[in-house]
């Protein structure tokens, strides 16, 4: 399971954590990663089981220690706290799209995802 991490866009991450990203050693940052499966499914018609298609998706984080303000017993207290900052970017999973061993899986995944979107769009227009 992924560590609890708020989802921010690149601008928000740099706004919130710019000082930390600029000097990760100062905050004892350690690079961490995990791989999750990103899944979709292929809708099949009656008497067939839907096919689940998953691709490994890597996420990268910096785990850093820095002071944060918390409220304890109604009082604001500054404490050092380990925080995960997601640094996954467009290059993190580049190998997934360039490695020949994933080529068929990626095509199946994208095709199934397109078919699912098409099916959902068609069902909305017929209602």
Taken together, the total number of domains comes to 1
Return Rg in Å.
21 Å
Distance between the termini: 37 Å
In which order are the strands of the major sheet placed? 1-2-3
Helix content: 25-40%
Structural class: alpha+beta
Give the ordered list of helices and strands: HEEEHH
Overall morphology: elongated
User: How many individual β-strands?
Assistant: 3
Overview of this protein structure:
- The chain is of the alpha+beta class and 127 residues long.
- The chain has one domain (10-125).
- The chain has helices spanning 10-22, 94-98, 103-125, and strands spanning 30-42, 51-72, 75-86.
- Strands 1-2-3 form a three-stranded antiparallel sheet.
- A hairpin with a 2-residue loop joins strand 2 (51-72) and strand 3 (75-86).
- The longest helix is centred in the C-terminal third of the chain and has 23 residues, at 103-125.
- The protein starts with 9 loop residues before the first helix and ends with a helix.
């Amino acid at each position: 399971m992924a560590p609890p991490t708020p989802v921010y866009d690149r601008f928000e991450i740099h706004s919130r954590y710019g000082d930390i990203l600029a000097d990760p050693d100062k905050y004892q940052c350690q690079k961490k990663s995990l791989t999750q499966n990103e899944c979709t499914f292929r809708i099949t018609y009656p008497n067939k089981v839907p096919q689940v298609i998953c691709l490994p998706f890597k996420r990268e984080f910096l785990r850093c220690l820095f002071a944060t303000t918390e409220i304890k017993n109604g009082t604001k207290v500054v404490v050092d706290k380990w925080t995960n900052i997601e640094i996954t970017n467009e290059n993190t999973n580049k190998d997934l799209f360039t490695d020949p061993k994933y080529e068929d899986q990626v095509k199946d995944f994208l095709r199934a995802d397109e078919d699912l979107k098409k099916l959902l769009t068609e069902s909305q227009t017929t209602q």
